[in-house]
Amino acid sequence: DGYVLITVHDSIVFELNKSYLQESLKLIEEVMTTPRHPKLPSIPVELKVGPSWGEAKDIVKERNGEYVFVH
Fold it and tell me: Out of 20, 31, 40, 50, which could bridge 55 as a Cys pair, Cβ 3.0 to 4.6 Å?
């Protein structure tokens, strides 16, 4: 449950329901890194989470597939 709130330069800001955060992050990362054509390279993305764009914190994907905050 969520939507694109705004795009600025090379950033896309989503508003997401916290109860679906893990699933949403997985889907966003998958869609953003999967090339639309087999000859195109995969482009890495940086995911951040926070109550506002200015307060967003870096997150990483653990081996188990869960996203956690970088301390």
Answer: 50
Which residue is it, tokens 């998958």? 30
- Report phi then psi at 40, rounded to 5: -90, 145
Per-residue pLDDT tens listing for the chain (71 residues): 899 999 999 899 999 999 999 999 999 999 999 999 999 999 999 999 999 989 999 999 999 999 999 87
Q: Which residues, at least 6 apart from 58, have a Cβ–Cβ distance to it below 8 Å?
A: 46, 47, 48, 69, 70
Interatomic CA distance for residues 26 and 66, integer angstroms:
9
